[in-house]
C-alpha cells in the first residue's frame, strides 16, 4: 500500500510499507536521512556488490554533472553574492574558478573572498571583485591579460604589489573605498607604477598625475615679497 506523507515538504512523495516494521507511512512526521552502511559492514554482510554499484552510479553522476557545467568554455560569468559561509563552499567555489580557462569577463562581487593567489585566469580581460576582503594585490588571481580591474570596497592597505600588473594591458583600475586611497600622492604613485594605465577610479589620467612631486609642491607655494 502507498500512503501520502503528511509533511508539506514530502506531500508529493509516496511511502511504501517495509516488511517486518510496524511504522506506517501515515505515522511518519519527521523523516530523517541516515548514513548508509560502511564498506566494512557491507563486507561482513557479503553485500560488497551493493557498494560497488553505488560508487559506479556516483562516479557517473559526477561525470555527467561535470559535462553539464562546462566551465572550461565559459566566456562571461557572474558568480556574485554566493554567501560562501562554509569551507566546503569556498573550496568548491575555487574548484570552479580553476576551470575557467577561457573566461574573459568575470564578476565575483560580495563573496567574502580573501585569497585567490592560487587561481589563474589566463584570458580574463575584465574582473570585478568589489566588496570582498582582499588586503593585498598579492592575493588576487593571476590575470596576465587583464584590462579592467575593479577592487572597490576591499581592505587593501598599501600599494605594495601593484607593480605586478606593470606588464599587463591594464587600462582601467578602481580602488575606491580602500584604505590605500588615503595614502599621500595616491594617484601619482599608482600611475608611476602602472605607466600604461589610462583611468583610475573612473577619472582619466591627468597631467598632474604625472608631475614630479617637487614640481607639484612648487605650484602650490605662494611667495610674498
Automatic annotation (TrEMBL):
InterPro entries named among the record's database cross-references: LRR_dom_sf
Q: Does the keyword Repeat apply?
A: yes
Q: Which domain of life is it from?
A: Eukaryota
Q: Which UniProt keywords apply?
A: Leucine-rich repeat, Repeat
- Annotated protein name in UniProt: TILB protein
This protein's species is Pachyramphus minor
